[in-house]
Amino acid sequence: MARDLAVAPTERVPAIRPDYLLIADCIPGLIGITGPDGAVESCNRAVLEYYDVTLEAIQGWASSKLIHPDDIPAMIARQKRSVETGEPLLNEIRLLRADGVYRWFQIHGEPLRDSQGEIVQWYVLQTDIDDLKRAETMLAGEKRLLEMVALGRPLHEILNSLCTFVEQMAPECQCAVFPIDQDEHRFDKGFAPSLGDAYTGPLQGVPVVPGAAPCGAAAVHKTQIIAFDIESDPRWLTSAYRDLALGFGLRAVWSTPIVSRSGEVLGTFAVYQRHPGSPTQIQQDLIAQFTHIASIAIERAQSDSAIRRSKAFLTEAQRLSSTGCFYWLRPTDEIICSDETYRIFGIELGTPVTVQLIASRIHPDDSQRFNKRVEERRTDGSKAEAEYRLLLPDGSIKFVHLVSQTIATESGGVEYTGVIQDVTEARVAEETLGKLRSELAHVARVTTLGELTASIAHEVNQPLAGIVTNASTCLRMLAADPPNVEGARETARRTIRDGERASEVIARLRALFSKKTTTTGSIDLNEATREVVALSMSELQRQRVAVRLELADHLPPVKGDRVQLQQVILNLMLNASDAMSTVEDRPRELAIATGSDGADVRLSVRDTGIGLDAGDPDKLFDAFYTTKSGGMGIGLSISRSIMERHGGRLWATRNRGPGATFSFSIPCEPHDMLDAAGLTYQHQSMMVG
Amino acid sequence: MTATALVSVVDDDESVRESLPDLLKEFGFAVQSFASAEEFLASGRVDETRCLVLDIAMPGMSGPDLQRELTRRSLPIPIVFITANEDSCECARVLDAGAVSCLIKPFSEAALLRAVTTAIQAG
């Protein structure tokens, strides 16, 4: 140390008071004194200690490396300007410390003037701002990287920038980031802009195991691994990685795991040095900071890709299920739609969607209902469901099912949101099924007709016999001499009555067996029952079945298709009759009872037949299940489906005594409820024949 | 032909009980009608009946039941069966059991007259 040189005066300058010199030496900053022309005259002790050179060397700064070569031209220019103008000298430059490291300094020079105002000296304070400068640079770099993350820049771009930046901050180092493929547990393609693909390539696909490389060890042990000198480190002496690193001139290898917030190792951050060594504290700080930023970037990239995947799944699911979703911004009537919603409404993707545009797609028959609902929904946010038909510009018709409601948003507001499903296929299938069902029901009716042929013939033949007989009698009475006019008139009247009776039978038959579409009306189940009993009387009587009618008075009407309900009753009666065909040891009794509990009307058909098999009585209602050798097994299944379409039920129970009871219930017509307490049973026992 | 021969009509169908006796009376027969086999058996007019016009299908005792009952009681009254069911088996069975005739409703007055006359002559 040339301590005595610090106070070397020149003759041209006023002597410096020794106490000032002492103060100058005590200040941690670097103080230089120059002449009015800027030539260095002296400096404090801190200057000499910093550079560890002689004053002469300092005096030749402009052509030395004491100031960073990049900063010299600016420094010369500024000093020249201050000398000429007398303005304070202000600058930021890098100065070479004794250990060979440039550090940033703030330069602040003020002129010393004599009594005439002439500059006689410059006092120049140089303050070490390297830490501050470094922190600023770090902050700017971090900010830039985080911006890239926030903007969703591609991961390779962010990680390459990160490496480049760290290398700027630590010029003696090179670095790389190796993400890990979580599923495969192998290293993904790494990023090392200064080393290149030739370095990262061989590491791609390498299993994440400690023996592979320091990176593997860091990932597996979840801790920083320092290879002071990869050449001699016993852990990787035989690994292929050692040769790779040495081939790139790398000696020190420091690997740090990149860990997610949830503790998962996302990859490793590797820093290399071309000579053996351990990281300095500054390097460790850099590593810690940028490992953290790398984890943010990789996590973001992973969640982005998860969102993309989930969005792709959602789009696919919406497409497959023909379901779209939408948000309705009620104040502006703007509707934000998913792709599938656009497709359902036949609107070109990206077109601004409004309530008016949607309304224009609604089938004219439904548009009044739609518009009314829209107005209601403006103020009502509760869950709503509706079904509409769409009429699209290409003329096609769609059936859509809509479910919507308001939901609270995270920000505390409300949003009106909903899903819309294209149910056209289901509706078309239902219609087809309905047609098939009605055809099947017709087949079943015709089959029943076959079973009833004898009964029908009997019903028709009976009045025909009366007609023929009466007509014959009438002719004979008129032909007598004198003609028996009174008798003839009476027989003619009977002829007419029998004719009417025959035509009633035909009318009933036509109603029951014609293939006409469903018509819904108000039905008195008692009346319907009596008609069916009348038609099947002869058949039942032939089967030696006694029919008992237990029909409730004042039975409330039900709503439904008369013919279909009569077909069910007929079916149950014929089944009951069949169930008794082998019964010889007891009366064959069939009781039909009606009643109501005020909400439903019930009808039951009770027989004294062979009863139900052990097991599930419900199996009887399966299509094609039959216990009859000649039956199709369709009857009960169709009967049940008819009852279900009437909102009712059909079931079977075992009697306490012999036989079984089949019952159905059907809702009363809603507006015409009768007091259930007022019901009485009219027991009407009759033998038919 | 015996003008005063009693023809008994047994049928549960009221229109038959109304129309058939009138026609038979026009033919000159004496006619009595009954709504069931049981009523006929209990009427006390079984013995004087020269011809029975009998419905096959009736609740309670059927036509064939009555035929068997009369055979059991050794009362060989000639029977003309009438039926609204075109069931040839049923007709064949009653004819085998000795019935004179089996008429399917509706039948002509000629067929009726022929059957009843044949029955009375057979008796």
What would a concise description of this structure say?
Chain A is built from 18 helices and 24 strands. Chain A is an alpha+beta fold. Chains A and B meet through α14, α15 and α16 of A and α1 of B.
Question: Overview of this structure, please?
Answer:
The complex is a heterodimer of chains A (689) and B (123). Chain A is of the alpha+beta class and 689 residues long. Chain A is 42% helix and 23% strand. Chain B is an alpha/beta fold. Chain B has 5 helices and 5 strands, in the order E-H-E-H-E-H-E-H-E-H. Chains A and B meet through helix 14, helix 15 and helix 16 of A and helix 1 of B.
Return the string of H and E elements of chain B: EHEHEHEHEH
Q: Which spans of chain A of ≥5 residues are poorly predicted at pLDDT below 50?
A: 1-12, 629-633, 672-689
Calculate the mean pLDDT score of chain B and round it.
89
Structural class of chain B: alpha/beta
Distinct helical segment count of chain B: 5
Secondary-structure content class of chain A: alpha+beta
Shape of chain A: rod-shaped
In what range is the share of β-strand residues of chain A? 15-25%
> What strand order characterises the main sheet of chain A?
13-12-11-16-15-14
Number of helices of chain A: 18
Give the biggest beta sheet of chain A.
6 strands, antiparallel
- What's the rounded overall pLDDT mean of chain A? 84
For the biggest sheet of chain B, the summary is:
5 strands, parallel
Percent range for β-strand residues of chain B:
15-25%
The multimeric state of the shown protein is heterodimer
How far from one another are the termini of chain B?
Answer: 11 Å
Q: What would you call the shape of chain B?
A: globular
Which range best describes the helical content of chain B: under 10%, 10-25%, 25-40%, 40-55%, 55-70% or over 70%?
40-55%
